[in-house]
């Protein structure tokens, strides 16, 4: 009997545990470890931050549901991994594994920028706790309207949620009839609006610029934030050579910027497992070249950058990619453990994303993720807003039922007509 540990029960890890259990059956043990007892659906955090969604709607207890499928759940933060001896330490105890699947998501590297993050002076929507705390700051903004800064710090790789939050916040402020009292600035390390860490997708530049213009949101690109203080942000705007072009001092009553991501400490500290940023290096089968019994998927894996930018940016890892990585891991574990065969299943490097804009939305598709591409496709409409609401519903239902049907394959790709696009 093989024992597989899935470390991290987020957007990637919890479905992975279900799918691995389904592939391996009852003859093998699957243990899911997560630092919190609940699963939290990260993509809905921007809605929580303006009070459109309650935390309970995107949170479910992990053990109650995974135990129905014969998966053990262990709640605790993994402090270290001894990859040479197939052991990890959690809650001060050693736990053995035969195979380890790392799905620990990102470490939020606010500490790279003085004064950044919820321990400093800017808000975050990267975790549910951050989004809830940001909601309090939003409520204070309603009481005391003033300038707002939204965007992504230097080194960030996840730009979609920054745009989402800017547009959602704009809508929430219009609903509250105080938008005219809130000057908004979008501050981003991207070289141009709509770059998205992907070198742009179709007309994402002109369309997102147009949307920002229509909503009276100014922007600063190639931005490197020097320091944040209470109600004030010092920003250096660079030119295309990465040299200083101009300095900005932005006052704010509310600021939310996405930080750079790195790998979580317990994973980053394992010798030869990760790249210098602490992201797990994997081969095309999501397997570590250094430790063949370790697999990894989700935001914690290393992926190649799309291109150099004057201010550092990274490449996003989005839901469809994560879903396919996890499916590949489940099939590869079956090949190794049950069939005695070599792994052969691969994830995809395709970026397919739905970005909510409050009352409308934008969908983009980049196939492959790195240009030149076979397909670049970007479209806007209220249907994206509705699709995003439906996506959350399907995903939460999947986490409760434990079915392993791929949400992106079954719903999103069909809705976008991607199968047709690929032909
Ligand atoms: C605000 C936001 C919105 C996003 N919206 C979208 C979107 O709309 N569409 C899209 O495609 N992508 C989106 N993404 C990108 C991506 O899909 C999400 O970040 C997704 O949650 C990543 O899944 P993951 O499993 O890799 O990491 P996570 O979902 O972050 O899960 C990691 C899990 O590991 C646990 N963990 C970490 N370290 C340890 C440890 N040492 N011990 C125990 N447990 C640990 C964490 O507590 C967490 O539960 C968004 C990202 C953010 C930040």
From TrEMBL:
Location of the FAD/NAD(P)-binding domain: 3-306
InterPro entries: FAD/NAD-bd_sf, FAD/NAD-binding_dom, NADH-Q_oxidoreductase
Keyword terms, alphabetized: FAD, Flavoprotein, Membrane, Nucleotide-binding, Oxidoreductase, Quinone
SUPFAM superfamilies linked: FAD/NAD(P)-binding domain (SSF51905)
GO cellular component terms, semicolon-separated: membrane
E.C. designation(s): 1.8.5.4
Record carries keyword Electron transport: no
Main subcellular location: membrane
Entry-linked Pfam families: Pyr_redox_2
Enzyme class, spelled out: oxidoreductase
Cofactor: FAD
Family label: Belongs to the SQRD family.
Record function comment: Catalyzes the oxidation of hydrogen sulfide, with the help of a quinone. Consecutive reaction cycles lead to the accumulation of a polysulfide product on the active site Cys residues; these products are released when they exceed a critical length, typically as cyclooctasulfur.
Record's protein name: Sulfide-quinone reductase
Annotated organism of origin: Pleionea litopenaei
């Amino acid at each position: 009997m093989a024992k597989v540990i899935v470390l991290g029960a987020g957007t990637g890890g919890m479905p992975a545990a279900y799918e691995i259990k389904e592939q391996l059956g009852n003859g093998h043990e699957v243990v899911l470890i997560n630092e919190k007892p609940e699963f939290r659906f990260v993509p809905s955090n921007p809605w929580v931050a303006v009070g459109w969604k309650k935390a309970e709607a995107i949170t479910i207890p992990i053990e109650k549901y995974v135990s129905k499928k014969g998966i053990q759940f262990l709640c605790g933060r993994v402090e270290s991994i001894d990859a040479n001896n197939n052991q990890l330490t959690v809650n001060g105890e050693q736990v053995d594994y035969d195979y380890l699947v790392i799905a620990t998501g990102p470490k939020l590297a606010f500490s790279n920028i003085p004064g950044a993050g919820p321990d400093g002076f800017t808000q975050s929507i990267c975790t549910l706790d951050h989004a809830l705390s940001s909601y309090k700051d939003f409520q204070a903004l309603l009481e005391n309207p003033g300038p707002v800064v939204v965007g992504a710090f230097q080194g960030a790789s996840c730009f979609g949620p920054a745009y989402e939050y800017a547009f959602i916040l704009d809508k929430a402020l219009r609903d509250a009839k105080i938008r005219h009292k809130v000057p908004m600035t979008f501050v981003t390390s991207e070289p141009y609006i709509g770059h998205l860490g992907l070198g742009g997708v179709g007309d994402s530049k002109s369309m997102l610029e147009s949307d920002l213009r229509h909503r009276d949101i100014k922007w600063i690109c190639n931005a490197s934030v020097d320091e944040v203080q209470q109600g004030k942000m010092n920003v250096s705007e660079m030119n295309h050579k990465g040299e200083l072009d101009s300095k900005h001092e932005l006052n704010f009553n509310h600021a939310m910027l996405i930080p750079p991501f790195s790998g979580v400490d317990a994973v980053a500290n394992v010798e030869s497992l990760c790249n210098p940023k602490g992201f797990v290096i994997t081969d095309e089968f999501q397997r570590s070249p250094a430790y063949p019994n370790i697999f990894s998927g989700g935001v914690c894996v290393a992926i190649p950058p799309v291109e150099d930018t004057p201010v550092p940016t990274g490449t996003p890892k989005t839901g469809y990619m994560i879903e396919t990585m996890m499916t590949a891991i489940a099939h590869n574990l079956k090949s190794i453990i049950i069939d005695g065969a070599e792994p052969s299943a691969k994830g995809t490097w395709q970026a397919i994303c739905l970005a909510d804009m409050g009352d409308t939305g934008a969908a983009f598709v980049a196939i492959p993720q790195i240009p030149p591409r076979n397909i670049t496709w970007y479209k806007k409409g209220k249907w994206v807003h509705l699709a995003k609401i439906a996506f959350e519903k399907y995903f939460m239902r999947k986490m409760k039922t434990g079915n392993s049907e791929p949400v992106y394959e079954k719903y999103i790709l069909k809705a976008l007509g991607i199968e047709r696009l690929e032909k």
